[in-house]
Design goal:
Elements (H helix, E strand, L loop, with lengths): L3 H30 L3 H27 L19 H28 L3 H31 L6 H22 L1
Helix pairs in contact: 1-2, 1-3, 2-5, 3-4, 4-5
Bound molecules: MU-OXO-diiron (FEO).
Length: 173
């Protein structure tokens, strides 16, 4: 059995993960409109991952006799200044998610809710990986530059990351 307070907090996390999914979907569409196919594919995958993060909490709440709430859809931004600014926003959002997960971990310990504490460890690891990946992408953008002549090379780098992720998925299957 989960406390009402923890259930409420986990539902807020559901909303945050759900918003990330829609934000990245919107970003994927913007990249596609700029001809950045690699970036678009990358963001579509991230959007799917965020949906999975959201659903994982849904199933957890079911398992502990809680009640998951489907969040309302908040309209994400549709226009972005540049590919660099877009990935800066992705990184900022991931940092926000990490801070939220860390707060949940602290609260689960305060409540002696070891089941939720244990469940959240997966997210702690996932956030470390996601922040690291986004920093790598931003570093590459800074190295390559993001003027009009550089966009092709940035997109190529994202395709390399897509290929690595596809290979990792194939190996995990
Ligand atoms: Fe599920 Fe990337 O936060």
């Amino acid at each position: 059995m989960i406390s009402d307070k923890m259930q409420k907090e986990l539902n807020e996390q559901i909303a945050l993960e759900g918003y990330a999914s829609y934000l990245y979907l919107s970003m994927a569409s913007w990249c596609r409109s700029q001809g950045l196919e690699g970036c678009s594919r990358f963001l579509h995958r991230q959007s799917e991952e965020e949906r999975m993060h959201m659903l994982k909490i849904f199933f957890y709440l079911d398992e502990v006799n809680g009640r998951a709430v489907a969040p309302g859809i908040k309209q994400p931004p549709q226009e972005f200044e540049s590919v660099r600014s877009l990935f800066e926003q992705v990184y900022a959002h991931e940092q926000k998610v990490t801070a939220s997960i860390n707060k949940l971990v602290t609260k689960s310990l305060k409540e002696d809710d070891h089941s939720t504490y244990n469940f959240l460890q997966w997210y702690v690891e996932e956030q470390r990986e996601e922040e690291s990946l986004m920093r790598t992408i931003l570093d590459k953008i800074r190295l390559i530059g993001d003027g009009p002549q550089s966009l092709y090379y940035i997109d190529k780098e994202l395709e390399v990351i897509n290929a690595q992720a596809a290979q990792a998925e194939g190996e995990a299957a």
